[in-house]
Specification:
Helices cover 81% and strands 0% of the residues.
Amino acid sequence: MVAKEDDLTPAHLGWLVSSRTANQQAALKLFTLFEKYPKQMKSAQFSSKAELMVAACFSLWRAAFLADKTGARHAVINDAKTFLGKMLTDNAITYPQDRSAREWTFNYYMNNAMNCLVHLGQEWGEVEAVLSAEQKVTKGTTKPSRRWDRHQEAFNIALGCLEDALKKTQGIASTPKASRKQRTQVESDEGDRA
């Protein structure tokens, strides 16, 4: 693999630190939801959403490290071929291979994040709206950092939607208990009258 120049400009390094911070804060919030709502997260209603959220979060985290790429089509194809060659030769891929083939791997992680967010957007229209707006603005061409920012924004919105949906389950869960208690009280009162 050909060694690539790292973007060591203050502008890119500043973006890199702030983007990783934003993603790590979102990851912590997601982790907290796993802790706060363990039964709900394992339920049929939320387990696939939880998996998609973790996949999107990880993909965005990794992609942030790879965003200093040119986006030139020939560079993407060269890195794709080189990446595949390393996979076949070494039978292993780690971060250094991701980094050295970032013209292709950035796209791989971003596409994975996008696919997860599209699935989540089918239920949460706010997520879909951000993704649609991005497609209209960029029409397929945009700076990698801008692309990442918009996907992280969509992820943050999905995180808020997930939290809201989980909170609603607490309200729903307490309502049937109250109703059951009220029904029991009513049945008891009716029995006393008979």
